[in-house]
Prior knowledge:
With 127 residues, this protein is mostly beta strands. It has one helix at 114-123, and strands at 5-9, 20-23, 32-38, 41-46, 71-72, 79-80, 87-89, 99-105, 108-112. The strands form two sheets. Strands 1-9-8-4-3-2 form a six-stranded antiparallel beta sheet. Strands 5-6-7 form a three-stranded antiparallel beta sheet, with no helix packed on it.
Amino acid sequence: MHDQTIVFKSSDLQEQSLGLRFDLPQLGEHATGFVIRFETKPYAYVNQCAHMPVELDWNEGKFFTVDKTFIICATHGAQYAPETGRCIAGPCKGKQLQPLAVTEKNNKVTIHLDSLVDALKKQSPKT
């Protein structure tokens, strides 16, 4: 069984700076997620473009556009609103990143994978 939370120190997550990546073995051997800070709040997503199944960052942790206003896919330039993960420009328009629940308390950012695990259980065939 995999851990259902991932915890980082709040101080490691800087405003509109590098995102923090983490493994998501629930989705496969090479699947990752990431958390960013935007307008003081943390947001976490599965690290996969809504257009094609590729990771968003080609330089590890670089998820923001040059002006730091959107998350960008380094492969095709798709842009996503940091607060919602909704694609606002590029080939994925109208789609969105898969969000992960995140909270911040007592100087810790916690990513909660319960909803991801529950969704995977619903998708797997019953035996």
